Amino acid sequence: MISISAIVNNPLGKTFKTLFSTSVHLWSFKYVEVESYIDTYTLFEFGFKWDRKCDHAGLHITLCLFTVSGSVNIYDSRHWDYEKDTWQNPSWTITLEEDPETGDVIMPIPPEALKMQGWKEGDTLEWTDNKNGTWSLTKV
Question: Which residues constitute the domain of residue 73?
Answer without folding.
Answer: 2-80
